[in-house]
Recover the amino acids of this structure.
């Protein structure tokens, strides 16, 4: 009897071999949702010159006699020379975001003035610096604009554009191949005979991989392929990928096809058998520094295994913290079964005024797809737990979004 | 003096002209995060045949004498005929997800048996139906698999694959053109002179549009283009787009370039001027049933205007509920200013054990980009509000993610 390792031990084995990916440079809009591979520091102030915050008039310092009447000396347009200081008693028309003369004391909005020919009267109390955007008031030279390993948001892209960057350097996307190996799995466009099922795991993992920043290079089922053909496919795709995910073919009783395939192509087994329900018959191996991660073929087991073993690798390869986030939640409806092995129950977690609640979702058999709907949390029940009573605290692994 | 309308009135004008888009059919993996345009109903049961939930043995009904010893009559493989009923006193080897003989009473896992030649003894108490996946136990014929106007998640795609669907019909992506019209905005690869700024709004909106399911067909600045060239561009792009967003050029004092452009190309103005801070100088128009939405050019005003006016249109066009979600939150740090016009303050909202908290973010001047970082909520302060004290309740517009 093999001794199963803990999911944390399995995760650590996988992370030991999840190498940071190389960089690529992308145009700003293509970099949305990618991970910056470099810290970016402001090389200038933003704004680099003082600007007007409103449409109105730049004013010279208030004259000693306190008069609020100025001589209106024209309007500044973009590109007009602003290195000429404003003269005592003068006002100059300016516009929002536009330049202002050197030594401008304050700007007054046009709706707070009365102009009469070239004379302008200010009808509001104005203080020094009013309506002037100061040099560097948004970002100062030397400020951090983007931290290394940041998920690039619209705000990042906007700020990089303001700093004149048309491109940004990010980690390249992890390249993934997916193989459904179960003997009873047929491609999606076939009608399954009794005892056969269609490959629902491939599209599940494909969509999850895309969501976590990866690219699906190839997605196959073993249906109709000889073992030789499968080995050829695995070896031929190896140079194009970072991770291969092998689903199913991990039966305990008969041949373990997943492990056999890994061994026959020369992969070194990292571990086999993890103390979890669902999906204990899983393992991982390494071939030519590429990770091959096996997942159990039952849909819920495949989904749980993805979050525990594949998603952390994808995050680590892109420079993100690989570890899932654990929180404590109140289980609103309980779970009626005793737990033998450590069990990951699919739940829907929501904050409300009473704190974080999690509801056990319907359809918890490993063979069912139903529990994946609305699932944004895995309830982590320790081995040997009694049934969970409604209202008791449970530990949940918080997923960033639903399956 | 023009009377400004409320943001809700402006939103309603825009939604009146946000027509549901046509459909397109996509392969499953390309449909991730798209919106289904049709309800999909299960045309069969899932599983369609009873299956074994474990690797083990299908058993005939327990004999009257209560004996737990069976005659092992071979193993079933995929495609073996299972329409032959199991005989009294017999056991047949089966595997996880595989077929089981007709009239199977229960399945016992192989690790709970002792086999001796062709005799098999069950070492565990087994009840009728144990370890059998019943016909339709995951989804029954007639169940709803996908509701119309659902955001397609990995779980949806998995379920559709299980039902043999290689493709799915979704609303096509809204096609958007973005024009930065401010006279002092230069393209991102230019060095701004005093009074000029780079176009940071284009990339901001482009990334937000992509996130909300749209495609940016064209992104332009008016820099170096004559008014005639801008009109030609606007008219030439019209047939390819659903919405045009015009940023800036909405000065109150001088020519309103945005409105002028809309009028000169023959668009009918829907409204102009909205009672909000930042971004009151905004409007919208309609040309040949296409929406043209103007946004204020200050970065924060542009961002707020996007969430109030553009995002609802994109959601409505894809069949989603257009309205932003309002919640009540405790403002953890307060806001020191009185509010003249209704004001949308950028905040970071987080649930914790004390409920929903929102923090006013630094850099609240409309000209600043800084307040967009970590912003996942807009605090909606009514016109004429006093300063917000720390710890008081505020109404927030909850954004699905940060800017």
């Amino acid at each position: 009897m093999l001794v199963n390792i803990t999911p944390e031990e399995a995760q650590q084995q996988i992370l030991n071999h999840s190498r940071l990916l190389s960089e690529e440079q992308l145009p700003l809009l293509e970099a949305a949702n990618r991970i910056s591979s470099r810290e970016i520091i402001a090389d200038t102030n933003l704004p680099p010159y003082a600007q007007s915050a409103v449409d109105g008039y730049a004013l010279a310092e208030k004259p000693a006699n306190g008069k609020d009447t100025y001589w209106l000396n024209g309007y500044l347009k973009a590109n007009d020379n602003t290195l000429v200081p404003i003269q005592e008693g003068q006002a100059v028309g300016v516009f929002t975001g536009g330049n202002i003369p050197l030594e401008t004391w304050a700007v007054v909005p046009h709706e707070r003035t009365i102009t009469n020919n070239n004379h302008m009267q200010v009808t509001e109390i104005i203080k020094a610096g009013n309506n002037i955007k100061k040099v560097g008031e948004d970002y100062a030279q030397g400020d951090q604009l983007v931290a290394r390993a940041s998920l690039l948001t619209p705000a990042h892209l906007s700020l990089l554009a303001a700093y004149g960057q048309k491109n940004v350097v990010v980690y390249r996307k992890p390249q993934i191949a997916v193989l459904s190996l179960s003997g009873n799995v047929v491609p999606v466009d076939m009608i399954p005979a009794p005892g056969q099922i269609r490959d629902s795991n491939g599209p599940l993992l494909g969509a999850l991989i895309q969501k976590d920043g990866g690219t699906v290079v190839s997605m196959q089922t073993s249906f109709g392929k000889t073992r030789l053909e499968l080995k050829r496919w695995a070896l031929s795709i190896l140079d194009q990928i970072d991770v291969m995910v092998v689903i199913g073919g991990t039966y305990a009783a008969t041949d373990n096809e997943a492990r056999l395939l890994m061994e026959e192509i020369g992969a070194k087994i990292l571990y086999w058998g993890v103390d979890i329900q669902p999906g204990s018959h899983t393992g991982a191996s390494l071939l030519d520094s590429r990770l091959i991660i096996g997942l159990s073929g039952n849909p819920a087991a495949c989904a749980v295994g993805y979050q525990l073993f594949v998603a952390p690798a994808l995050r680590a390869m892109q420079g993100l913290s690989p570890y899932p986030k654990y929180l404590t939640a109140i289980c609103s409806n309980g779970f009626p079964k005793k737990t033998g092995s450590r069990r990951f129950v699919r739940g829907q977690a929501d904050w409300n005024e009473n704190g974080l609640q999690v509801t056990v979702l319907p359809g918890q058999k490993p063979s069912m797809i139903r529990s994946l709907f609305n699932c944004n949390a895995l309830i982590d029940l320790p081995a040997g737990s009694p049934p969970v009573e409604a209202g008791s605290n449970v530990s949940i692994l918080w997923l960033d979004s639903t399956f």
The first strand of chain A starts at residue 23 and ends at 27.
